[in-house]
Specification:
- There is one protein chain.
- By secondary structure, the protein is α+β, with helices and mostly antiparallel strands.
- 27% of the residues lie in helices and 15% in strands.
- It is built from 10 helices and 10 strands.
- It has helices spanning 3-18, 30-36, 41-47, 78-85, 89-96, 185-193, 210-220, 229-235, 288-293, 303-306; strands at 21-23, 60-62, 67-71, 108-112, 237-238, 248-251, 260-266, 269-274, 279-284, 294-299.
- The strands form 3 sheets. A 6-stranded antiparallel β-sheet has the order 5-10-6-7-8-9. Strands 1-2 form a two-stranded antiparallel sheet. A two-stranded antiparallel sheet has the order 3-4.
- Strand 8 and strand 9 form a beta hairpin.
- Helix 6 (185-193) packs across helix 7 (210-220).
- It starts with a helix and ends with a helix.
Amino acid sequence: MRLNAVWPWLVAIALAQSAPTYTVQRGDTLFSIAKRHDTTVEILMRLNSLSDATLSVGQVLQLPPRVVQHTVQRGDTLFSIARHYGSSVQAIQQENNLEGTTLSLGQVLRIPQVSVAAPSNPPANPSASNPSPASPNPAPPPGSSANLVNSTPLPSPTPPQPAPEPAPQPQPSQPADTDYDPTHPLILVVLKYLGLPYVFGANSDRAVDCSAFVQQVYAEVGIKVPRTSREQWVTLTTVQGAMRQGDLVFFSFGGRQIDHVGIYLGRGVFAHANSYGSRVVIESLDSPYYKRVYRGAKRVEALQVVRP
């Protein structure tokens, strides 16, 4: 057997053996652990083969290795590298103090948030182009992740550039730790969708776009919401004060109209179908990118009726 065929497996085993662990304490959730260790709920679930978000005190969780190094090859982009390592564009930019997306051949990058195994080949440059920006769900931001079934992803080599804003925009309210309830009816529904592929305009059990993801999650708890992010923004009630679990958070990646939506889960995180990462993911509202394109939150009043 050739050495280059064996090498990826040896690297994967070495990473697994050297990966840090965390022992679950009273009051811990997957969300709080992921946030504390700069990773995502999805990565923790994959690493530990978890089928749901239930944890036990004393349970030992495997954490992703903090950082690996990658030497930039011809054709590499931040997007292709992030996707290959299970990281995000934003995380790589922050780790390497990069202000843009330009890379140099031979440049050595530190890659945080490795998911399961090291790559066996250099990442390739994505060949597909972005979907039309006229849709209610344009390519989401650098730093996304997430969706469920095999479907052709829609890579976005160049992160969208938001237009200059004439006035300060609303910022996501800073929630207290008490705003997370693991028995909330939407939590388990949202977890079912993690990893489901993003496809522009899709609305099925094989792929969704951002507003279809919101509509399907709410449909599973018996609540009908409009189909597009702009309709949801216009129709629903504006949140006054602190956000609650289940509120919808809206963004404008293009800098003008509402073109993206997600579901607030509590403790500063939200779930959304991210076209830049080509899947449904959970991310932090504290991300500088999301703060910049955030436009406000709306409340689905009918949700209060179905809560236990």
